[in-house]
């Protein structure tokens, strides 16, 4: 069984070879990804593969995202530490933990109660308390807590869910994979007054966003 130090070494390699080497420069983000023990967000049988360059299963037919994708999406949100963030698709809670270290507060919605429960347990173990988890259909957002400075969707949508755009602050960013099942474009939408600026950050592959404004 690998010890704590082995995991730290694997994490350092992950950050260097998969993330920094591919152009992510935000030092706060790189430091946080160096610190968060990604393996704890999956079952023990997968720990030795936890720092590899791909997604891994977390139960319920869902996956923990590839480390580089987590970095790319987080980087695109441009967090400084003051933001209120909404995440759709808590899953393992790994992305949630990264966001919690880089923003002021994170609200995260997950469809599957079992995954949300497990994520809550790991986040508490890591003493990450600036997070509120909710079980429900995140395609409708979390209107009671809106607006958000940044919103991240970690499942693939057929179209951008309208309620999420409406729950952005002025200048707020929404990062969401949009496209067909099994192949999407990663979009960043920025709210500017009555307008919404849209950028395409490249191709990606996510599990389905299932819900009223999803599949
Ligand atoms: N960020 C997570 C990704 C998990 S995969 C991680 O890295 O672990 C995407 C997650 O989105 C799954 O857990 C899935 O159950 C969830 N999901 C799908 N549709 C959803 C919806 N409408 N609302 C909330 N969560 C949803």
DSSP summary: helix tally: 6
Return the average pLDDT rounded to an integer.
Answer: 97
Low-confidence stretches: none
Order of helices and strands: HHEEHEHEHEEHEEE
- Rg over CA atoms: 16 Å
**Strand-pairing-aware structural class:** alpha/beta
At the fourth level of CATH, the homologous superfamily of the domain at 58-204 is Vaccinia Virus protein VP39
Strand order of the largest sheet: 5-4-3-6-7-8-9
Ligands bound to this protein structure: S-adenosyl-L-homocysteine
Query: What is the CATH domain class of the domain at 58-204?
Result: Alpha Beta
And the CATH topology of the domain at 58-204? Rossmann fold
> Proportion of β residues?
25-35%
Helix content: 25-40%
What's the story with the biggest beta sheet?
7 strands, mixed
Number of strands: 9
CATH architecture of the domain at 58-204: 3-Layer(aba) Sandwich
Active site: 65
Catalytic activity: [protein]-L-isoaspartate + S-adenosyl-L-methionine = [protein]-L-isoaspartate alpha-methyl ester + S-adenosyl-L-homocysteine
GO cellular component, one term: cytoplasm
Pfam families: PCMT (PF01135)
Indicate the topology.
Blueprint: H1 4-19, H2 27-35, E1 56-59, E2 62-64, H3 67-77, E3 84-88, H4 94-102, E4 105-110, H5 113-125, E5 131-135, E6 148-153, H6 162-166, E7 168-180, E8 183-192, E9 195-204
The chain binds S-adenosyl-L-homocysteine.
